[in-house]
Amino acid sequence: METLAAVGYSIDPQESMRIHYLRQTGYTAMPRYHSHASYEIFYVQDGGRTYFINETAVHAGKGDLVFICPTDLHRTVSTDALLCERILVNFTEEFIRQGGGLLFPLQELGRDHLYRLPPEEQTAIEQCLQELLTEMERREAGYIEYSRCLLTGLLIRLYRLRRREQGQPAAPLSTTHPMETKITEIARYINEHFDEPLTLQEISERFYISPSYLCRIFPQITGFHFREYLQTIRLRAARELLRSSTLSIALIAERTGYAHTANFSVIFKKKTGYTPSQYRIMNRQKHNIQ
After folding, report:
1. Sign of the C-alpha dihedral, residues 188, 193, 195, 198?
2. What is the pLDDT of residues 153-209, one digit of tens each?
3. Cβ(69)–Cβ(184) under 8 Å?
4. Which element (helix H / strand E) includes 266?
5. Strand, helix or coil at 24?
6. R_g of the chain computed on alpha carbons
7. What pLDDT, in 10s, does the model give residues 26-52?
8. pTM higher than 0.70, yes or no?
9. What domains, with CATH codes, occur in the chain?
10. DSSP string for 44-87
């Protein structure tokens, strides 16, 4: 892997909005899934990049845009082109709201993670992103407000594009591994049935794959071992329930696939650094402050 050019800027230390340009060649892959509290826009200027988002593989080529919502589990790997020139933008909903907000929920843009932009939209969005890079680099008077306006305009363009294309069949996606479609189906099944007592053996039988082969191929494509992926999906659901509901810890454990509350609490603290009760209290305090 060789990085040919890279530059990045952030609005503030909290990175309520940041933009990063990168051009690199060779093979690269994120070793693990990750998620973050911000939205993410990934625009491919040249080459390509493969995203694995939650349970879906997405292949973005030149002129394509990928939109990631907060808490979406994702990782990226190189495509066969072994070249990627991209502009990445991360931003929080609070950053957009400070400018008056949008008339549509941002989550709606994430229902279709991949936007295959027509040529005229590619030109407009590239110009917008380049101007945003320039604003963030020069930091002249009013650059934060103008950067917010540029980003808001880009989001409105995506929303209009999505509305125009609703009801039209999605463009077919190519795959880079013969088992990618099957693993995508398995990941989707896990996302829909994580509250059940799933095992590697059961999944292998359901999808007609030997347990040993599934154990090898699953991490190659997703970046997770099977048990690690299942646990990540369960804990993500548990965090959401702790933040947004008044359900007891025992009931949350049950609804996220854990047969024993004590085991759930041990795993939760190991992965987050907090007990479920501490996590709930901490997030309520943050909400009250805001």
Report:
1. negative
2. 999 999 999 888 876 544 444 445 677 778 878 888 888 899 999 999 999 999 999
3. no
4. helix 261-272
5. strand
6. 20
7. 988 887 778 887 899 999 999 999 998
8. no
9. 2-165 (2.60.120.280), 180-289 (1.10.10.60)
10. EEEEEEEEEETTEEEEEETTEEEEE-TT--EEEEE-TT-EEEEE
